[in-house]
Prior knowledge:
The chain is mainly beta.
Amino acid sequence: MRKIFLLTLLIVSYLSTHAQEKGWAVGAKIGDPAGLTIRKYLSNDKNAIEINVGVYGALWGLRGNYKSGAFDGAGLSFNGLYLWHNEMSSRLKNYYGFGVQFTSRSYYVDKTLNGIQYKDQTPATGLGGLGQAGLEYFLPSSPISIFGEIGAYVELIPAVFYFHPQGGLGARLNF
């Protein structure tokens, strides 16, 4: 554990001495979905492409109705977004964007067999649209930024117009 901490400290130190405000950003988000976020700023500094991989449905919708059954647990999510950025001050920016999200999660359907009731686990892979907006603050003299965002996922396949709110807080290392 100590070696991992020291290695992480060395990598962050190296990247912070070679950091730029724009280029790439890698970070983590706590929320829904929670996980890893990777952002590539485009050459015009007003747009970016972002990819997120993480846990889906752990905060909002851990349990809830879905198709002919109900969720009872979290799943995995992968999404890609195209973002527009606006500078509010030298350190504070807002952003918004749209993209596509893939989800993989099981739901449970109540069934009866020979008079015995049970819950049948059914895997579901979803595909839908995603909208997101957020605020990002760049710490002074540091490659670290902190952010908060909200959004919504609207599934199109297999549950047409299934709505799931999303959002969270996180930090990014910009280099």
